[in-house]
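Bug #77: duplicate submission created two jobs. Keeping one. Sequence:
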Amino acid sequence: MTAQPIHEHEPERVPRNAEGIAAALSGAQRMEFYRELLAARPEQARGVLLRWWGEAMLDTDPEADARADAVLAGTVSTVSVDELVARRRAAGLPVD
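Kept job's structure:
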């Protein structure tokens, strides 16, 4: 059995590179992203890219309003950290 993503993005809504991330962000966010990326040490750059990619994905989520309403209504399904780690391990994904 293999794990599949819940929502596939083909092609990805936000490419996982600096250009794709910057294109998805608003002007003020884009400036902050570039400021952080340019100030990051090489070993920190990956973390900056991952954090801002997540921000860009959230900002461009076409279901964001419905998801926020579900959170506020308390109807969003949840998963424990242990279960999430187990799923990632089963899929061969990193858990660190």
